[in-house]
Design a protein that fits this description.
By secondary structure, the protein is of the alpha+beta class. The protein is about 30% helix and about 25% strand. It has 5 helices and 5 strands, in the order E-H-H-E-E-H-E-H-E-H. It has a 5-stranded mixed β-sheet with strand order 1-2-3-4-5. A hairpin with a 2-residue loop joins strand 2 and strand 3. Helix 1 packs across helix 2. The model has no long low-confidence stretch (mean pLDDT about 85).
Length: about 150
């Protein structure tokens, strides 16, 4: 295994399309994302930061983050939104998710880091997973769930 991490400036549209393929291969049976929705919400979105994890040339994990610096709604400009995050099931428990979230913390600055609820979001918050591991994993990393 040869894990490589790439940040925003080193990522191209093919890499992003491979994120969509990974998502749909592993999660598409529950929540498929169309190319058009992915293109609108991520690929063509201007204010984004991202980190991808590769095993050689294969995308095995990613975090896609949106910023809203030019929006007139103050609530959006004060936050950083994790629009989509995923690590392949075969690559979990190897520190990939932690490294991806560390990247989010690096770029966070003074903003709150929110999962979902961004403009053109995929999810209104953290999707329920079948093993109830997501909430526990996030809480270990300092996230606090809020019901709105």
């Amino acid at each position: 295994m040869n894990l490589i991490f790439k940040k925003t400036s080193d990522i191209n549209k093919i890499d992003l399309s491979n994120c969509l393929k990974l998502w749909n291969n592993e999660m598409g049976y529950v929540y498929p994302i169309s190319f058009n929705a992915f293109n609108q919400n991520i690929i063509d979105y201007i204010d984004k930061d991202m980190m991808l994890c590769f095993d050689d040339d294969k995308v095995v994990g990613f975090i896609l983050i949106k910023r809203f610096d030019d929006v007139t709604y103050v609530d959006y400009t004060n936050n950083l939104y994790i629009s989509l995050f995923y690590v392949s099931k075969k690559y979990r428990k190897q520190g990939i998710g932690t490294k991806l979230f560390d990247f989010a913390e690096e770029i966070r600055g003074t903003r709150d880091l929110i999962i979902g609820k961004d403009i053109n979001n995929f999810f209104p918050g953290v999707p329920t997973d079948f093993d109830n591991l997501t909430d526990v994993w996030l809480e270990k990393r300092g996230f606090v769930g809020k019901r709105l």
